[in-house]
Amino acid sequence: MITPPPARADLSCPSCGAPLPTDTRFVAWCPSCDWNVDPGGSAAVQDVPAGRSARREEARRRAGHLAVERLYADVSAEPDRRPGRDRALLSASALAGAVHLVTAVLAGGSLWLLVTGNTVARAFGAAGFFLAFMLRPRLGRLRRDEWSLNRADAPRLHALADRVAAALQAPPVHLVRVTPEFNASYGRVGLRRRGVLTIGLALWEVLTPQERIALLGHEFGHAVNGDARRGLWLHSAVVTLDHWYETTRPVRTPAGRSDALFQVAEGIAGLLMLVPHTLAGLLLRLLDRLTLRTGQHAEYLADDLAARVGSSAATRSMLEALVLHDSVEALFRRQAAVRRTGAASRTPPGAADDSGLWDELRQYIASVPGTERARRIRVSALRMGSVDSTHPPTHLRIRLCEARGPREAALTADAAETAAVEAELAPLRARAARAVFSSGRW
Ligand SMILES: [Zn+2]
Ligand SMILES: [Zn+2]
Q1: 293 CA from centroid of ligand 2 (Å)
Q2: Which of 2-6, 92-96, 114-118, 138-142 has the lowest mean pLDDT?
Q3: How far is the CA of 62 from the centre of ligand 2 (A)?
Q4: pLDDT tens digit string along 348-402?
């Protein structure tokens, strides 16, 4: 049970005199004039960074913000436009082609050396072929793990996902994963591009049944929104570059290896790796920039599809819930600390009732007052915050959802269906809670 929060004595805004929110658990700020709206971030936003590289970084950040705002203006002006093949996307596709070509030439050249060369050439061929194998485009594999739920485990959840997919004319997913995180994702793996839906329980639990349908609508929207970044050509090039970047990362001297010879060898290896590592990093950044516009446009379209299937009201409130990430993390941290010290009165350490965490989470999030939710959205707007680097800022997604006007839900779930899905998630709910307590992240 969440005990009622202590109320702050009636205070008024030192700037405009309007009354301030009274819940002492949260920041005192003024919804009328934004006084103290972002106590942790306002200084950072206004500070002029020192140093040339910091200023360059700041200029890049501002240019990025301008590009994001320009895209928002374009997308809101033309609701029916789909992500197109602009010059940036064509350049990204050409860059991806160059990445694939390097791998192909390396594999072909090495094979040629292996077949036609002398002993020394064959040794180079074998090494080159091994390298090409290591750098091959990776398409991912359909891997079941402890978070997977197949159709037999969760028929009602799969049926709900199928209904959302069918409403959007998206193919059904092959695998549903339910993890502890505060997020959700949709991906395609393997040559057959089979769909994998991942639902983060921390997010799912704080959403209403209709908001969950909107969330599924957004995720399945990724299957039909024409996002070129998720296509085989671009995605596999990014994965390959990522692999280059990670495998060429300079290694650190392990503890206990401080001899000069080892350090010289490490220095030479580091120098050899520096060029491909830097190049891979630059190419990754370039690809990211070239696909920013089309990728974010596709995300807005996925939100439109979410509204079509789950209603615009549910999509909007689902998006508003995304800014509560910090509150979820704070609750996890608190509950994990309580567990560690064994001070929990209801749930001593090691108790079987781990899934009580999700009830605590739901109650806590429900107790966050509207003024604090509004503050989080304003802070998100000030910081241009988004769920990750691929999504547009959350406040712009909310604004676009409002601008599109009200839309009724194409799909709903009745109480029996919602309860059946809840029951199917029960085993994973306990496992996910144990993961939260034992991960050490909180
Ligand atoms: Zn004020
Ligand atoms: Zn998305």
Answers
A1: 14
A2: 2-6
A3: 23
A4: 544 446 768 999 999 999 999 999 999 999 998 998 888 888 899 999 999 999 9
Distance from Cα 265 to the centre of ligand 1, integer Å: 62
**Percentage helix, strand, coil, to 5, in the chain?**
60, 5, 35
Placement of tokens 């206990």 in the chain: 256
Q: Rounded to two decimals, what is the model's pTM?
A: 0.85
Q: How many whole angstroms from 36 Cα to the centroid of ligand 1?
A: 9
Place of tokens 């091994």: 130
277 CA distance to ligand 2 middle (Å): 29
Neighbours of ion ligand 1 (CB under 5 A): 13, 15-16, 18, 30, 32-33, 35
Residue 409 alpha carbon to ligand 2 centre in Å: 19
Can you tell me which residue has the tokens 């709910």? 429
The mean per-residue pLDDT over the stretch 307-328 comes to 95
Q: Quickly list DSSP for 173-214.
A: PSEEEEESSS-EEEEEETTTTEEEEEEEHHHHHHS-HHHHHH
H or E segment to which residue 331 belongs: helix 325-341
What are the backbone angles phi and psi of residue 178, rounded to the nearest 5°? -120, 110
Instruction: Tally DSSP H helices, then E strands, for the chain.
Output: 16, 4
Ligand found nearest the CA of 14: 1
What is the Å distance from ligand 1's center to 12 Cα? 8
